[in-house]
Each structure stands twice: as C-alpha cells, then as structure tokens.
Design goal:
The protein has helices at 37-47, 62-68, 72-80, 84-91, 111-116, 119-122, 142-153, 214-219, 232-238, 259-270, 277-290; strands spanning 6-10, 31-32, 35-36, 52-57, 99-104, 127-130, 134-137, 156-162, 172-178, 183-191, 202-210, 244-248, 252-255. Helices cover 32% and strands 23% of the residues. The strands form three sheets. It has a five-stranded mixed β-barrel. The protein has a two-stranded antiparallel ribbon with strand order 2-3. Strands 7-13 form a two-stranded antiparallel sheet. It is an alpha/beta fold. Strand 9 (172-178) and strand 10 (183-191) form a beta hairpin. The longest helix is centred in the C-terminal third of the chain and has 14 residues, at 277-290. The protein folds into two domains: 6-257, Spore Coat Polysaccharide Biosynthesis Protein SpsA, Chain A (Alpha-Beta Complex); 258-299. Helix 3 packs antiparallel against helix 4. The protein binds uridine 5'-triphosphate (UTP). Uridine 5'-triphosphate binds at residues 10-17, 56, 105, 108-111, 113-114, 131, 133, 257. GO terms for molecular function: UTP:glucose-1-phosphate uridylyltransferase activity. It comes from Paraburkholderia monticola.
C-alpha cells in the first residue's frame, strides 16, 4: 500500500482577484479571523500524515517562509511578558517532524507549471497538491479522507463537490460514473468549462492526491490562451494510461479565492470562534434584524 508523505502548496499565483490587498502580500496570508489561509491548509495536510511540505513560491511570497519559520524575537518578547500560551502558539506552527521546503517558480506560468517545479523533490512517490485558497472543513479533515481513498484504491484522487449554480466551480469539472457512494471513476476533466460544456455538476475542489506519472503528462501540456500550463489537461491525459478517481468529500468548501467565499468563511468561523462567537452572533442578529439593505458601497 502506497503512503503519502509529501504535499505541494502552489502559492506563486499573481492573485488578481484580491487586489489591491495582494499587491505586496500573498492571498494565502489573508487571515480568516486570526489564522492565514495557508496555515489552515498546512494543518489539514499535517493531520493527513504529511511530513514534507513543498511550497512553490514566487515574487512577493517570502512572508510565507517567515510565517513557518522560527520567530525568536517575537517568542522572546512574549515569554518575557509571561504570555506563554501565545509563545507556544507562535512556536508550534509546524511540529518538529515536519519539514518545509521552498521552491521558486520564476514566472507565474500556471498551476501545472508550479506543480512541475516540485518534480525533483517528489521523485517517484505519490503526493498531495493543496490549494490554500480553497478552505475545506471536514471531520476527518478532507485530505485525510482522500489519503484513505487513495490507499484503498491505489489511484490518483481528486476532491470534488456538486455545484448548483453557474460559475460555482473555479477550477475544473469532471465527467465519469459513480463506483461507490462518494467515489467516481473519472472519464474526463475540463478546465473551467462554460456551463453548457460541463460534463457533470461535479467541480474540483483544490485538493489532489496524485501518482508521480502526472509529471510526464504535465511535460506534454501546451500553454493555454493565457500562456499558462494548467494541471487539468495533464490529469485528462493521464486518463489514457491509468485510473483516476474523484471523491465527493464530506465537509464544506469555502472558495476563499473569491470575495464572497472569503466573507462566508469569515462569518462562519467567527460564529464558532471561542473568543468572539457570542458577541459576534449577537451583533450579527441585531444587524440582520435592522438591516433592510446596505447603507453605502465600499470601493
Ligand atoms: P488561481 O487560478 O487561483 O490564480 O491559481 P491566482 O493567481 O492565485 O489568483 P487569481 O485568480 O488571479 O485571483 C490556483 C492556484 O495555483 C497557484 C496559485 O497560487 C493558487 O494557489 N499558482 C497559479 C501558482 O502557484 N503559480 C502559477 O503560475 C499560477
């Protein structure tokens, strides 16, 4: 049975949808309450048994390295002030058995190209790809569910969810037939299709567990109309030689790459956050009770 020890976090995109917030700071560092998106993603991977975190970074992304690095100055000040639990919070972001490796993608040439940058570090092992702007909540965590499916079937696994409305999928859409209640044998995958061309209503959520064969297929992918090499066509090409499964994960997806998804995550997480849930809930109810409509527009 193959185990999954490595995860790739592509964080080298140019983040156009959150400009100007992302002009000098990566979208993966946007916080939902008090934790950046990338930390939620890393914690999910660690819960799934991943011990090697490979970040594909680019211009302006150094702050992600700093976030997962030791921070002696901050810790020293917190301990000197007797704030032990905060010092532990800052210290223990990645456990000692987990290593972080950073690879630079010189140009943002697409998600597929970013994954290809990890090839030498992955070698011949299966690996996970985690897109941090999809914040996934599940119990067990979604990547753990996927590793379980991967180990059971020894096949690449893509996380999917059924979407209801047009444009609900920001990545690819799969076609295929159900094998099991939540497992679909994939027969096609299309990158962001027009609604009439979508092969099904199952859209890809930003989690993959892939066989290393995907690298050979990535090498054959031609750049799209924007000059980017995408991951979706490589997976489509892989279908010719091996089985790929889609898995309807148990949990909830927040598409934090969009303003709406980011706001939904913030509100839901605030309603459960131990410091603020009561007061925020009360404020929200009062606000909703009194709100017939927005009083102004923020630009
Ligand atoms: P997106 O399609 O979300 O693009 O990339 P983006 O640049 O991050 O954001 P928008 O759409 O312009 O707002 C999907 C994932 O692939 C990574 C991104 O960081 C994101 O996690 N990516 C994309 C790379 O690492 N390199 C690239 O060249 C492109």
């Amino acid at each position: 049975m193959l185990a999954v020890h490595k995860a790739v976090f592509p964080v080298a995109g140019i983040d156009t949808r959150f400009l100007p917030a992302t002009k000098a700071s990566p979208k993966e560092m946007l916080p939902v309450i008090d934790k950046p998106l990338i930390q939620y993603a890393v914690e999910e991977a660690i819960d799934a048994g991943i011990t090697e975190l490979i970040f594909i970074t680019g211009r302006g992304k150094r702050v992600i390295e700093d976030h997962f690095d030791e921070s002696y100055e901050v810790e020293r000040v917190l301990r000197a002030r007797g704030l032990q639990s905060l010092a532990e919070l800052v210290h223990g972001i990645t456990p000692s058995n987990v290593s972080c490796i950073y690879v630079r993608q010189a140009e943002p040439l697409g998600l597929g190209h970013a994954v290809l940058c990890a090839q030498k570090l992955i070698g011949e092992e299966p690996f996970a790809v985690v897109l941090a702007d999809d914040l996934l909540e599940g119990q067990p965590p979604v990547l753990e569910q996927m590793v379980h499916i991967f180990s059971h079937y020894d096949s690449s696994v893509i996380a999917v969810e059924e979407f209801e409305s047009e444009g609900a999928c920001s990545h690819g859409v799969i076609g295929g037939r159900h094998w099991d209640e939540r497992v679909i044998s994939v027969s096609s995958i299309v990158e962001k299709p027009a609604p009439q061309d979508a092969p099904s209503a199952f859209g890809v959520a930003g989690r993959y567990v892939l066989m290393p064969a995907v690298f050979e297929h990535l090498r054959g992918v031609r750049p799209d109309a924007h000059g980017e090499i995408q991951l979706t066509p490589a997976i489509h090409s892989m279908l010719e030689t091996e089985q790929v499964l889609a898995y309807e994960f148990i949990g909830k997806r927040y598409d934090c790459g969009t303003k709406l998804g980011y706001l939904q995550a913030t509100v839901d997480f605030a309603l459960r956050h131990n410091e603020v849930h009561d007061t925020f809930d009360a404020w929200l109810r009062q606000r909703m009770g009194g709100a017939a409509g927005a009083s102004g527009t923020a630009h």
